[in-house]
Amino acid sequence: MIKSMKTSLALAAALGALGFAGSALAADLTVVLEGVEDKGGTMLVSLQNKEQFGNPMNAMGAVAPATAGSMSLTINDVPPGDYAVMVLHDSDGNYQPTMGSNGKIAEGTAYSGKITTGWKFEELKFTVPAEGGKVTLKMSYPR
Question: b/e per residue, 23-39, with b = 16+ CB within 10 A?
Answer without folding.
Answer: eeebbebebebeebeee
